[in-house]
Amino acid sequence: MSVTRTGEERSQQTDPHRWWGLVVIALAQLMVVLDATIVNIALPSAQRALHMSDGNRQWVITAYTLAFGGLLLLGGRIADLVGRKRTFVIGLVGFAAASALGGAATSSGMLFGARALQGAFAAVLAPSALSLLTTTFTDPRERGKAFGIYGALAGSGSAIGFIVGGLLTEYLNWRWCLYVNVPIAIVAVLGAFALLHDRPGHKGARLDVPGAVLGCGGLVAIVYGFSEAEPRGWTDPLVLGLFAGGVVLLAAFVWWQNRAPVPLLPLHIIRDRNRAGCFLTMLLAVIGMFGLFLFMTYYLQGILGYSPLKTGLAFLPLTAAIIIGSTQISARLLQHVAPRVLMVPGMVLSAAGLMVLTRMTVDSRYSTEVLPALLLIGLGMGLTFMPVFATATAGVAPQDAGVTSATVNTSQQVGGSIGTALLNTIATTSGTAYITAHLHSPADKARVVPAGIVHGYTVAIWWAAGVMLLAGLVAGLMVTGKAPRHGAPAQTAVREPVA
Question: What is the pLDDT of residue 493?
Answer without folding.
Answer: 37
